[in-house]
Amino acid sequence: MKILGIDPGSRLTGYGILEESIQGYKYIASGSIRIKGDYFPDRLKQIFDGILEIVDKYQPDQMAIEQVFMHKNADSALKLGQARGAAICAVQTKMIPVFEYAARQVKQAVVGKGAADKIQVQHMVKILLNVQGELSLDASDALGIAICHANYRQTAAMLNMQGVVR
Predict the structure, then answer these.
(1) What residues make up the domain containing 18?
(2) Of 89, 156, 34, nearest to 165 (Cα)?
(3) CA–CA gap between residue 130 and residue 91 (Å, rounded)
């Protein structure tokens, strides 16, 4: 099962792909979509097109994305929500299921504490996925979201096997 994690942003959207198997997680790819220009509709199209290109190249089975949290600046929160929408619409054109997680859930799943900072997430992602070399903060956040989703999938599957979830 290939999972695409997305860390949305209106200027920089991180992505990360991992493969989940019985042996654990395997790092496939990661990077950032660098959005250019000031006209916001064009920036949303760049996110949409960039996500479609990633989906076509790596063929993920599912996508996990961070939920919007309220910023101090309402305009920033709205732009983040629109960036998320562009990414979600892109994968929906390929009928890929989308799962959403709060930032605290992701940090808890990756680091073990919901108040972890980006550097701690980056460090743990590199360890968990055995990534050598540099990994941008946006890409590590996206991989963290994919790891969080894989963990939740495994927990749900175990509970289902035990008859807890029906």
Answers:
(1) 2-161
(2) 156
(3) 27
- Catalytic positions are 7, 66, 138
Q: 158 CB contacts (<8 Å, ≥6 apart)? A: none
For the chain, what is the domain count? 1
Q: With helix as H, strand as E and coil as C, how does 130-150 read?
A: CCCCCCCHHHHHHHHHHHHHH
pTM for this prediction: 0.91
Q: Check: CB of residue 17 under 8 Å from CB of residue 119.
A: no
Q: What are 15-42's pLDDT values in tens digits?
A: 999 999 888 889 999 999 999 999 999 9
Q: How far is CA 36 from CA 33, 39, 44, 107, in A?
A: 10, 9, 10, 29
Any domain includes 166: no
Strands 62-66 and 98-101: parallel
Residues 12 and 152 sit within 8 Å (Cβ to Cβ): no
- Asked whether residue 39 is assigned to any structural domain, the reply reads yes
CATH code of residue 61: 3.30.420.10
Which H or E element spans position 21?
Answer: strand 12-21
Query: Residue 84 corresponds to which tokens in the numbers above?
Result: 């998320």
In a domain, 61, yes or no: yes
What digits encode the pLDDT tens for the residues 54-66? 999 999 999 999 9
